[in-house]
Amino acid sequence: MPAIAFEDLTPGLIIQLGEIVIDKDEMLDFAERFDPQPFHLDEAAGAASVLGGLCASGWYTSSLWMRSYVDHVLAGSTSQGSPGCSELLWPKPVFPGDVLRSELEVISARRSKSRERLGLVEITGRAYRGAEVVMRTTFVGMFGTREP
Amino acid sequence: MPAIAFEDLTPGLIIQLGEIVIDKDEMLDFAERFDPQPFHLDEAAGAASVLGGLCASGWYTSSLWMRSYVDHVLAGSTSQGSPGCSELLWPKPVFPGDVLRSELEVISARRSKSRERLGLVEITGRAYRGAEVVMRTTFVGMFGTREP
């Protein structure tokens, strides 16, 4: 049995997920493939935009947060995926070289009514640059239960 | 002036964004980097999960939808990015070889109170496999206005 099951994810629990470093080359590769808007690809276009500089696609920041969540929680868990997010916010632009601190907080947890041995855990994930939240998402994670 | 500005994105407008093809190799590369959960990497683990098979990370499907949105709308627009999504749902798993139809619908539009010549457009994006919605997101897009 993995170390983390539904029963371990209790409301109020906060788990630190380590640091995310925004690598400029990978940030640009991601933008070229998935979000080739000028302010994600070009310094001058970024500076001329309301974002204030060449900045990461929110999908890149979110994908990096996901990786930190897998490394610190899901890899040793009974995770069965997620049906989605009730919010995914990018309150501040993220720039090359930024170092973000990543964490999650368990908001609520209940057993599935339709599936045995499955629990639904509502989680808020955040990425911080210093004291500033640059990404926040609230989603439901599906986790196998330890007890029948 | 780009072809699409705030004024063009009126509530009720639906724009077709073409097809998304789920390439297995790229799907696996994305999962290895950003979402290395067993059911996103391995056939047997996928089959054993509640997802029913090796399937795409929702972040991969969402990133592909973003690319279709850039290609069909944002590239020729006054887009100034997005502060985030009020929902991002993955109601059904997405599998290698799936061909998804992508579209958006404008839900509401208003001018920014705090920034001149900027409008906020609420948009719902969907990806369909046949008649089935496999991804839905509602978000705010910021667009420059054509008129002062």
Concise overview:
Chain A is α+β, with helices and mostly antiparallel strands and 148 residues long.
Assembly type of the chains comes to: homodimer
The helix-and-strand class of chain A reads: alpha+beta
Average pLDDT of chain A, to the nearest integer? Answer: 96
What fold name goes in the CATH topology slot of chain A?
Answer: Thiol Ester Dehydrase, Chain A
Number of strands of chain A: 5
- State the major sheet of chain A: 5 strands, antiparallel
How many structural domains can be distinguished in the coordinates of chain A?
1
Global geometry of chain A:
elongated
CATH level-1 class of chain A: Alpha Beta
Within the largest sheet of chain A, what's the order of strands?
Answer: 1-3-4-5-2
H/E element order of chain A? EHHHHEEEE
Strand content of chain A: 35-45%
Radius of gyration of chain A: 17 Å
Report the CATH superfamily of chain A.
Answer: Hotdog Thioesterase
Tell me what you see in this structure.
Two copies of one chain form a homodimer. With 148 residues, chain A is α+β, with helices and mostly antiparallel strands. The first copy, chain A, has one domain (6-144): Hotdog Thioesterase (Thiol Ester Dehydrase, Chain A). In chain A, 24% of the residues lie in helices and 35% in strands. The first copy, chain A, contains four helices and five strands. Chain A has helices spanning 24-34, 38-41, 43-48, 58-72, and strands at 14-21, 84-89, 99-111, 118-129, 132-144. Chain A has a five-stranded antiparallel sheet with strand order 1-3-4-5-2. The radius of gyration of chain A is 17 Å and the shape is elongated. Chain A starts with 13 loop residues before the first strand and ends with a strand. In chain A, 43% of the residues are buried. Chains A, B: Residues 19-113 form the MaoC-like domain. Chains A, B: This is Acyl dehydratase. Chains A, B: InterPro entries: HotDog_dom_sf, MaoC-like_dom, MCH/BMMD.
